[in-house]
Specification:
Mean pLDDT: 76
Structural class: mainly alpha
Organism: Vigna radiata var. radiata (Mung bean)
Helix content: over 70%
Oligomer: single chain
Radius of gyration: 21 Å
CATH architecture of the largest domain: Orthogonal Bundle
Distance between the termini: 48 Å
GO molecular function: nutrient reservoir activity
Pfam families: Tryp_alpha_amyl
CATH class of the largest domain: Mainly Alpha
Number of domains: 2
Largest sheet: none
InterPro entries: Bifun_inhib/LTP/seed_sf, Bifunc_inhib/LTP/seed_store, Napin/2SS/CON
Low-confidence stretches: 16-22, 138-143
Strand content: under 5%
Family: Belongs to the 2S seed storage albumins family.
């Protein structure tokens, strides 16, 4: 092997190692942010939305109650703020995936409703283009 070939191989190896390390650092940074965020608040808010969806009577009463409407908007905005507090879109996506992973033991119908609620939250919070897979790994394997 020539010196230039060895040098090129070494540079490619160093570049790959550097980028792999940076990706690992970024994932760890996101996990750290997720632990500090109050994502349980978002999960509770979303579970309430799903529950209200089941009970049309409660939902219709809430729709006519300005206080409840304002409270729901406040809760949604707080949840948006928690997720928006993540440093970048990848971390925001991981935060939403973390909430979805909390649904692993739930019936399939509830998982699908949570996925829909998370997608609606993503749009309502104006997080940008949706490049976030919220399906659970076990669900992907079944499909």
């Amino acid at each position: 092997m020539s010196t230039s070939t060895i040098l090129i191989v070494a540079l490619v190896f160093v570049g790959h190692t550097c980028c792999a390390f940076k990706g690992t650092q970024e994932r760890l940074n996101c996990l750290e942010q997720i632990k500090k965020a109050e994502l349980e608040y978002c999960e509770n808010y979303l579970m309430t939305k799903i529950q209200d969806h089941h009970d049309d009577v409660i939902r219709s009463v809430r729709m006519n109650d300005g206080f409840s409407e304002a409270k729901e908007l406040h809760e949604m905005l707080r949840c948006c703020q928690e997720v928006r507090g993540m440093s970048n879109p990848k971390c925001q996506c991981q935060a939403l995936q973390h909430i979805m992973e909390g649904q692993v033991d739930k019936p399939k119908k509830e998982k699908l409703q949570m996925e829909e609620a998370l997608l609606n939250l993503f749009v309502s919070c104006n997080f940008g283009p949706m490049e976030c897979d919220l399906h659970l790994d076990s669900e992907r394997e079944m499909q």
